[in-house]
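Q: I have two molecules that I believe assemble together. Could you output structure tokens for the complex as a whole instead of separate predictions?
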Amino acid sequence: MSDGKMPLWEVFIRSRTGLAHRHVGSLHAADAAMALQAARDVYTRRGEGLSVWVVPSSAIVASDPAEKDMMFEPTGSKIYRHPTFYEIPEEVGHM
Amino acid sequence: MYTQALNAKDAAEPIPAEEAARHVRFQERVDAEERIEPNDWMPEAYRRTLVRQISQHAHSEIVGMLPEGNWITRAPSLKRKAALLAKVQDEGGHGLYLYAAAETLGVSREELVDQLLSGKAKYSSIFNYPTLTWADIGAIGWLVDGAAIMNQIPLCRCSYGPYARAMIRICKEESFHQRQGYEIMLTLCRGTAEQKQMAQDALNRWWWPCLMMFGPSDKDSQHSDQSMRWKIKRFSNDELRQKFVDATVPQAHYLGLTVPDPDLRYDEASGHWVYGAIDWDEFKSVIAGNGPCNKQRMKQRREAHESGAWVREAALAYAAKQKARAAQQQAQRAA
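A: Yes, here they are, computed for all two components at once.
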């Protein structure tokens, strides 16, 4: 093996049917099968999940926190994207 | 607590002028109770303090498996054995959550493990005491985990996001540990006179080391101020120790046990239990490596690491082989 280091994996768990898989943490394992096994032992000791995903951490592409403003600021001013922007008379009822 | 050695002062470094503004902004975020995440800018000293604190905490969980593991094969019933196994497995899990949190700060797992095995990194002094009887398993769950919970609940609101999230998971699990410990004590105290004496003996031996878990008294703990400002720490050592004593003394009385402190008294005016002087020489000596079991614990950890080396190597070699084989097959198909 290249540097003798255990690859890092990110662990996602679906806690109930109908819910999305959610990131719960990370772990080190030599390969995908061992990562899945370790994820079960480390993150689901009390019935926390029905399904586990493990993803090599190196496969995740993340946005740069330094470019947070450029990425997300433009939506800040677009308040017309929210339902509360529009006035509906009370008589119309819930919409 | 699990990071007692942090109470040594960190060398202050001069801050260049252009950095000063970033430090101010950072402190403003912390003051506003914003969580700091791995890729955010943070002062080097903040990063260093966290790496040390989180890794010491992780090491404590891992070494903490040893004194309890000592009784798995001799647990008095299948129920107790299953519970103890689950508890020790939890401690291993807690160590892993915490190592993962420390790694988000840019330190590798291998480095962290090396620091523990070389003796460079510290772990909590409490795990250097021996578990002589089954009652010690009760006392550890009740007192050691009880003290840990006092310390860890405020850490769920720590300014560093990954640490706070790890602590939330840990606190949820820790409550089972304390309750199973207290139930062991209760069973012994309702048993024969000899069994009750075992429980008393365990309390006698664990009480003072548990009070020491919270670290030096506030007047001797210079590191706290900065950690408080950074909201890594929310309460001082003495505040947490007092909370623990106030919560635990009535529990001991319920068991019909005597807290081994002749100076212990209830102060009506403040509503607190006032405890006697702590033997800080003993604390320093255990931290320095001279506790009853320091050498044994480190020897066991090193042996476990060395004995597991071939497994890690084999797993990595197998993964490399599978990868190479898959690449070769793909190349053949392409050809």
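A: One point stands out. Residues 34 and 67 of chain A are 36 Å apart (CA to CA).
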